[in-house]
Amino acid sequence: MASSALLAIIEVPHEKRVRCSADGCGHSVYKKVHLVRVDGHTQVYGSDCFAKLFGESVLGRSEPKYGGTNGRLLTPEEIAMLAMNTEHLVEEFEREHQEEIMRLEALRIAKTERHSCLQRIQATQTPLFAHPPTTTMQSSEAEAIARKRLAERFPGVNIDLAGFKGLLAMEISKIIRENAG
């Protein structure tokens, strides 16, 4: 068999079983039905005949092009396609396969764009409590001014208590920004 490919492994309900196309077989099959492209034509094989014909070959050990190895349960429409025109069913599998590839590529692009956008945003933002570069004198002057403002705003409150250190740091940052430039 010059050119062969395992296209899909499918499953149909017992009452909708199909005939195995292996020479001399003719059994009806419904679970683990193998759709195989052989010399340009799609053939239907049961799992036993598939194993006999392709067993240890590369094809026998290959994954199906469409779907997995568990056997995709066909919808009523797909069962009708299988019975009437197997090639049309394979074309439908190919269309679904291409749609999935496009969907995954769109997700990959969106993820890349989100990551790139996030990096641009992060590059332009400064951290919340970042101070511009200052000298010790500037920091100590700003702290003195901040303590004076907070003492006026909150008389009788000890600014050195744990709950107020963040408030003091924000006030120092505000003063440094006001006097920068």
Walk me through this protein's architecture.
The protein has 181 residues and is of the alpha+beta class. The protein folds into two domains: 4-97, no CATH class; 136-179. Helix content is 53%, strand content 14%. The strands form two sheets. It has a four-stranded mixed sheet with strand order 5-4-1-6. Strands 2-3 form a two-stranded antiparallel ribbon. The longest helix has 39 residues, at 86-124. It is rod-shaped and about 100 Å long.
Task: Write the topology of this structure.
Elements lengths: L3 E8 L6 E2 L8 E2 L3 E6 L2 E5 L1 H8 L3 H4 L10 E2 L2 H9 L1 H39 L11 H18 L8 H18 L2
Parallel strand pairs: 1-6
Antiparallel strand pairs: 1-4, 2-3, 4-5
Which terms summarize this structure?
single chain, 181 residues, alpha+beta, 2 domains, 6 strands, 14% strand
- The number of helices is 6
Largest sheet, spatial ordering of strands: 5-4-1-6
Which residue ranges are poorly predicted, with pLDDT under 50 across at least 5 consecutive positions? Answer: none
Series of H and E elements: EEEEEHHEHHHH
Summing up helix and strand content along with how strands pair, one would put the structural category as alpha+beta
Task: Give average pLDDT, whole number.
Answer: 86
Number of strands: 6
**Strand percent estimate:** 5-15%
Largest sheet: 4 strands, mixed
Number of domains: 2
What percentage of residues falls in helices of 4 or more residues?
Answer: 40-55%
Radius of gyration: 35 Å
Shape: rod-shaped
Q: Kindly report how far apart the N and C termini lie.
A: 81 Å
